[in-house]
Amino acid sequence: MNARASTTLILGRRPVRVPFKALTRILFAGAASLALFVGAASAAPTVGQPAPDFTLKDINGQAHTLSTYKGKTVVLEWVNPECPFVVKHYQGSGNLPATQKAAIAEGAVWLSINSGHPGAQGDYDPSAVQAWQKQTGAAASAYLRDQNGKVGKLYDARHTPTLFIINPEGILVYAGGIDSINSSDPDDIAKATNYVKAAFADLKAGRPVAKATTKAYGCSVKY
Predict the structure, then answer these.
(1) Which residue in 92, 158, 180, 216 has its CB near the most CB atoms, within 10 A?
(2) Is residue 49 situated within a structural domain?
(3) How far apart are CA 212 and CA 160, in angstroms?
(4) Looking at the 3D structure of the chain, how many domains does it have?
(5) Do 25 and 121 fall into the same domain?
(6) Could you tell me if 113 and 15 lie in one domain?
(7) Rounded to two decimals, what is the model's pTM?
(8) Contact between 82 and 122 (Cβ < 8 Å)
(9) One-character DSSP codes across 22-76
(10) Does 13 have pLDDT greater than 50?
């Protein structure tokens, strides 16, 4: 074999001569696979583009498909009842329940989604979810379980809480945190800008959402 037409690879402890053409095919295949992996891992819905459709069941066994809510504003909220940052906005203050009620009063649909894997922190069964909702005054239209993480990954949801707002045309108009102060202290809520309420004010006034993308904060989603 021509020395220029091959190279030597060490496989285990054994040197193996590999033709350059074969090596090139291997490298190109690996690069293509890596590109596909990186693209899938970094894919996230884009504000200004249609929100990805999905179907999930709520704690009562009813299926909810996002596209069936076209014509209404929809809020998606990633939640983990045991995350201290979620506790801040529920038990600690009633902030998220109040925000939910205000949005629903405007005709919105609010879907709380838990993407924790089975047995993860905050992966409550339906009866535990109902008890938590009663305790905290949670007012979401439905509480959905996404135990395989498919929908959470589809939306690249990384923290609880993370929120998305979808307009009646099915376009994503807000993605990010509940407010402007990254802390688990309920006392900070009064000093923070509630981005979700601000977005709804913009939508009601018929203007683009001024702060359409923000940095979500909180606990990691327990995929």
Answers:
(1) 216
(2) no
(3) 18
(4) 2
(5) no
(6) no
(7) 0.81
(8) yes
(9) HHHHHHHHHHHHHHHHHHHHH----TTSBPPP-EEEBTTS-EEEGGGGTTS-EEE
(10) yes
